[in-house]
Design brief:
Helix content: over 70%
Oligomer: single chain
Organism: Halalkalibacter hemicellulosilyticusJCM 9152
Number of domains: 1
Keywords: Membrane, Transmembrane, Transmembrane helix
InterPro entries: DUF624
Distance between the termini: 48 Å
Protein name: DUF624 domain-containing protein
Pfam families: DUF624
Shape: globular
Structural class: mainly alpha
Order of helices and strands: HHHHHHHHH
């Protein structure tokens, strides 16, 4: 009752709740990433963390965080590792292309194009697992959707880039935060922007259907 008339305290209380939530899910993310020997655990752990954060953003807190995390981790272990593997292959190809261009002193145009593709690729790597959890499609369709998201929603992409860069810089200066927010803070921003983009797309689609029906 006391907080109802104190908007500032309400915001501080909500902030404290989210800090504790993100710290909790980040510890789970680190633990299950290590459980999967790092390289095999980061994909499913990120998927599980995205699922938990997505539920929280939707206003649902009446679930067991550990149970949901473990269920998503097991259910999507193979598929997320396949996504991770394909992403690594694409990254290796881009790196090889850039090295080939530099070694053969090809025109600057090719380097610029490769660097631009590399930046898009890095952004896709940040959003692809959270996007997969919030938009279940085939793996090939997922890569297409991720690319369309990056290119088709430049504002969201810019916000994700700025937020990710800012969070990385803050955590480099305050390394103690890495243990509690290294993955969860970035995932929160990504999931939030993905949900906004999905909601916007659905609203446009609904308007188009209404205009057709009229």
């Amino acid at each position: 009752m006391f907080l109802e008339n104190q908007p500032i305290l309400q915001k501080l209380y909500l902030l404290a709740i989210w800090i504790s939530r993100l710290a909790t899910v980040n510890l789970l993310w680190l633990a299950f990433t290590l459980l999967g020997l790092g390289i095999f655990g980061i994909g499913p752990s990120t998927a599980a963390m995205s699922a938990v954060i997505s539920r929280w953003i939707d206003g649902d807190s009446s679930f067991s965080v550990v149970r949901l995390f473990m269920n998503v981790y097991r259910k999507h272990f193979i598929k997320t590792n396949l996504i991770f593997l394909l992403s690594a292959i694409v990254g290796a190809v881009l790196l090889f292309n850039y090295s080939f261009i530099q070694a053969n002193s090809l025109p600057m145009f090719y380097s610029v194009i490769t660097v631009a593709m590399g930046m898009i690729y890095l952004l896709i790597c940040i959003i692809i697992i959270p996007l997969y959890i919030n938009n279940h499609v085939s793996i090939m369709q997922l890569f297409k959707t991720s690319t369309l998201f990056v290119i088709g929603y430049p504002v969201n992409s810019l916000i994700i880039v700025v937020a990710t860069g800012g969070l990385v810089i803050i955590q480099l200066f305050m390394p103690g935060l890495l243990f509690f927010f290294s993955g969860s803070a970035i995932t929160f921003v990504v999931v939030l922007r993905i949900k906004k983009a999905i909601d916007k797309t659905r609203a446009i689609q609904d308007e188009m259907r209404e205009s057709v029906n009229v």
